[in-house]
Amino acid sequence: MTTKLDIFPYYCIKNCFRRTFSAKNSCSRNLCVIIIVMVKEKPSISQIMSHPENLKFAFQPVIKTDDGTIYGYEALMRPEPYTPMEVITEYARLNRLNFIEEITTYYGAKQFLENGLEGKLFLNSFPAAYISDEMMEKIHELVQNRLKKKLVLEILEYTEFSEKAHNRKTWHFKQSKTGEEIAIDDYGCGKNMDEDCIDFYKPDIVKIDFKIIHNIDSDLANQKKLLDICTYLEKKGIKILAEGVETKEEYEYLKNYPVNIMQGWYFGKPRIYSK
């Protein structure tokens, strides 16, 4: 990261040197101060993540389709100066996604509660990661039943299914009696797109991938795809969430489908709150 001081324009430095080293001028009569641009080394990902208490989470609203009121918020880690994907890639390489799962759950919940946000809390969860018993105790101390029936574990598509991880997570939350719901992220594209995924997780909510929702009001192919998905999910009694809604046209068109909840920039961008 470059730290900007008061830097002379190029022509000032050039003229300063010219005057200083001119035969007609002595150095004693002309003082030229050169201000150096200091370069501060960028901290590593491990350095940033070694202080999870300093991490910020942004919260994006999820709204109810029928009346536009708040259904909940998704917690999104902001490990500046890195992107979430850079951090995930690095910790997947180190086989340490459990650590990301733990800090996302703890600090996402902490900041959600501290800022007094309403509705349900959507927390991202890796299919092959789980939380240690020690961290679960810490989370219980923090939450103290304040998230009872308000927690949604959102299963990402970044890693393969892990029955061990899923069973461990399910056991933990059953023990704490939080009454959590399961959501599948990015359904319809990538790995989270087939019936095996639905049968494995038995989700309460399915988030339709933004690639299908984008320009849904005019994209005939995606309209057909969305209709088929909605028909399938509705028969299973699963709530349908349209992800990545960015325009009024998309919002109005989606009202024609059995879409229960929506999320996207049209309703609000992810926001970091003050506390």
Structure description:
This protein folds into 2 domains: 2-39, no CATH class; 45-272, TIM Barrel. It has 10 helices and 11 strands. It is an alpha/beta fold. Residues 1-24 and 26-37 have low confidence and may be disordered. It has helices spanning 10-20, 45-49, 84-93, 97-114, 133-143, 163-176, 195-201, 210-213, 220-235, 248-254, and strands at 2-3, 38-39, 56-64, 70-78, 120-125, 151-155, 181-187, 205-208, 239-243, 261-263, 271-272. Helix 4 packs parallel to helix 5.
- CATH class category label of the largest domain: Alpha Beta
Helices and strands, in N-to-C order?
EHEHEEHHEHEHEHEHHEHEE
* Beta-strand content bin: 15-25%
Level-2 CATH architecture of the largest domain: Alpha-Beta Barrel
Integer-rounded radius of gyration: 25 Å
Question: What low-confidence regions span 5 or more consecutive residues with pLDDT below 50?
Answer: 1-24, 26-37
Named CATH topology of the largest domain: TIM Barrel
How many strands appear in the DSSP assignment?
Answer: 11
> Major beta sheet, specifics?
8 strands, mixed, barrel
The portion of residues assigned to helices is 25-40%
What is the number of independent domains?
Answer: 2
What labels would you give this structure?
eight-stranded mixed β-barrel; alpha/beta; 10 helices; disordered N terminus; single chain; 275 residues; globular; TIM Barrel
Summarize the structure in short.
This protein has 275 residues and is α/β, with parallel strands linked by helices. It is built from ten helices and eleven strands.
